[in-house]
């Protein structure tokens, strides 16, 4: 659990093995292999993009 009762719900990575390893290490229940799948999941309220800054526009455009 994060601060103020928030939970890290899921992790997404284009490399499935990396996503699974991260999820296992931090006890995260859901793994996405596709960013589009994560962006369209109605259970996701907030997405934190951790890729290099020059890639953010493309991801944000996909989300909107």
From TrEMBL:
SUPFAM superfamilies registered for this protein in UniProt: NAD(P)-binding Rossmann-fold domains
Residues covered by the Gfo/Idh/MocA-like oxidoreductase N-terminal domain: 5-64
Pfam family, one: GFO_IDH_MocA
GO MF terms held by the record: nucleotide binding; oxidoreductase activity
Keyword list, A-Z: Oxidoreductase
InterPro entries named in the record: Gfo/Idh/MocA-like_OxRdtase_N (IPR000683), Gfo/Idh/MocA_domain (IPR050984), NAD(P)-bd_dom_sf (IPR036291)
Family per similarity comment: Belongs to the Gfo/Idh/MocA family.
Protein name: Oxidoreductase family, NAD-binding Rossmann fold
Lineage: Bacteria, Bacillati, Bacillota, Clostridia, Eubacteriales
